[in-house]
Amino acid sequence: MSILVQFAVGLIFGLGLILAGMANPAKVLNFLDLAAIPAGRWDASLIFVMAGGIAVTMLGYRLAFRRERPLLAARFALPGASRPDTRLVTGAALFGIGWGLAGFCPGPALTAALTGGVPALIFLAAMLAGMALARRLAAATAVSIAPVELRRES
Amino acid sequence: MIETAFTPIASLAGGALIGLAAVLLMLFQGRIAGISGIVSRLLPPEVDGETAGRLAFVAGLVLAPLVAYAAGSAWPVPQIAATIPVLVVAGLLVGFGSVWGNGCTSGHGICGLSRLSLRSLIAVATFMASAIATVFVVRHLL
């Protein structure tokens, strides 16, 4: 049951990315290109993705948290309220550079696996390598990846 | 650059679907819908009782274009302007940065901001700024 739910959630997430235009790197880059505003060539669509996503999630989370526990798990696993640190900012800054270079973030990189041909697969492979590298480096330097550490599971 | 059309309605609806997915994952599994977190934990050494669920989630994402197509949408081909070397560098940065910074556009951008997390707010402000700066340099300075 739990496996089926997660498959369906992945599917809905992917359909959302496709419908939103977020799965298309050209659209993402045209959104990030603020210098195109004066020329009238800025694509503001992704603001609406954020707005729709956050509105539904904010409301839905509130309803979900009224429950004692999730439907199929022992408890809600939320990242702890640790303070922002250098690692957070460094990671986010590097992520942003990569996002700005190609227009792909992790979700769209996966929805493009079947549709984006060789270039999309090359990005996906490099992304997985980058993730593996970060995990190794974190383990080697004994830095904890916060959500793993703080996940509260029975 | 490749021109794209302004699509506020479709983007709002797509965003709402992404939000619905995030809410369902919390309601059923009690988990944040952070793609980088889910995908990176499929990589060694982390294999645990949740691996199958993570794989199922990723399979759903990968197969979404087929479902969209079956539902009557056009085959959603991503328009990729970047060259192969740029894609490699970008992929490494996106993968490394999202794990190092504990999240990406979904985990920090949708889930974290919805929970009013200060860490996520700082992460989103940081990656939006660096992404905007990167596009500016690539498109207008180089």
From TrEMBL, chain A:
It comes from Bosea vestrisii. Pfam families: DUF6691. This is DUF6691 family protein. The chain crosses the membrane at residues 44-65, 86-104, 110-134. Keywords: Membrane, Transmembrane, Transmembrane helix.
Automatic annotation (TrEMBL), chain B:
It is a multi-pass membrane protein. Its main location: membrane. Belongs to the TsuA/YedE (TC 9.B.102) family. The chain crosses the membrane at residues 6-30, 51-71, 77-100, 121-141. The keyword Lipid metabolism does not apply. Pfam families: Sulf_transp. It is found in: Cell inner membrane. PANTHER family: INNER MEMBRANE PROTEIN YEDE, SULPHUR TRANSPORT DOMAIN-CONTAINING PROTEIN. Signal peptide: none annotated. Keywords: Cell inner membrane, Cell membrane, Membrane, Transmembrane, Transmembrane helix, Transport. This is YeeE/YedE family protein.
